[in-house]
Amino acid sequence: MSIVHASQGLYKETPIPKRKGEKPTAKGLQSVSEAQARKLRYRSARYTVINNVLYKRGYTTPYLKCITAEQGDYVLREIHNGVCGDHSGSRSLAYKAFRQGYFWPTMHQDANSLVKMCDKCQRFGNIPHIPAEPLTPIVSPWPFAQWGLDLIGPMPQGKGQVKYAVVAVDYFTKWVEAEPLATITAAKMEDFVWTHICCRFSIPYAIIIDNGRQFDSELFRQFCTRLKINLFFASPAHPQSNGQVEAINKIVKKLLKRQLDKAKGAWLEKLPEAL
């Protein structure tokens, strides 16, 4: 029998001597009450030691490696603003650390503190101005059957004079496709739908778009008619009727702002990471 304790960031296993007629855990629990001992035995069942490393058991998850708060801070910073960091919120940040196979008792509190101290997250985070309104969802019958399309831009000019992006989101799976563009024409929209939607996910049943000239053109209408794609136009004064893609646009722009700060012309290179 043994007990596990932390020393200098490493979890070690210390044997407990067993006397005749003595329970194996008695010596290790002499300084606690019976109620505390029961609680400790109950909580210790969630953990196990493998090769002198402490792991936390899970009902539906693999073993999570237990690390110290200092090691956890390093993990959170790498996920939050490392090479592939996306400056996600506190709950998402803690969940990503969990998905990477790590656990420490204060991971949620530490993630919340890190986000609060992040300058970019505070400057470009959501600021609620009006009360939330109930949503009216548009139901999609099956995956990749109904897409919403919209444009982002003009943005700071990048390589190749690119300053726009066309964004598409599937209403069922919320999958996002995007492509940077130098010009926004009906031919470009046709090429995007064919390459990024039809060739990858099959021909959709319907596409929801706004009343931009690129979409409301004879060329794009003929393309959709030829493929038997139903076109639905959002109300001109009510863009919320295509709210799914509008929400995605806001998230993409917010992530780009957090990652780039003043280097806004590099949004072209960071767009795949934002997606």
Model description:
By secondary structure, this protein is of the alpha/beta class. It has 3 domains: 2-56, no CATH class; 67-124; 146-274, Ribonuclease H-like superfamily/Ribonuclease H (Nucleotidyltransferase, domain 5, 2-Layer Sandwich). It has 9 helices and 11 strands. It has helices at residues 34-44, 69-81, 90-99, 107-117, 119-124, 186-201, 218-226, 243-260, 267-274; strands spanning 2-7, 10-15, 47-50, 53-56, 64-66, 102-103, 146-152, 164-170, 176-181, 206-209, 230-233. It has a 5-stranded mixed β-sheet, sandwiched between helices. A 4-stranded mixed β-sheet has the order 3-4-5-6. Helix 2 crosses helix 3. It is elongated and about 85 Å long. The protein starts with a strand and ends with a helix. It comes from Prunus dulcis. InterPro entries: Integrase_cat-core, Integrase_H2C2, Retrovirus_Pol_polyprotein, RNaseH-like_sf, RNaseH_sf. This is Integrase catalytic domain-containing protein.
Main CATH class of the largest domain: Alpha Beta
Main pleated sheet? 5 strands, mixed
The CATH superfamily of the largest domain appears as Ribonuclease H-like superfamily/Ribonuclease H
CATH architecture of the largest domain: 2-Layer Sandwich
What structural class results from the helix and strand content? alpha/beta
Tally of helical segments: 9
Termini gap: 50 Å
Q: Concise description?
A:
With 275 residues, the protein is α/β, with parallel strands linked by helices. It has helices at residues 34-44, 69-81, 90-99, 107-117, 119-124, 186-201, 218-226, 243-260, 267-274; strands at 2-7, 10-15, 47-50, 53-56, 64-66, 102-103, 146-152, 164-170, 176-181, 206-209, 230-233.
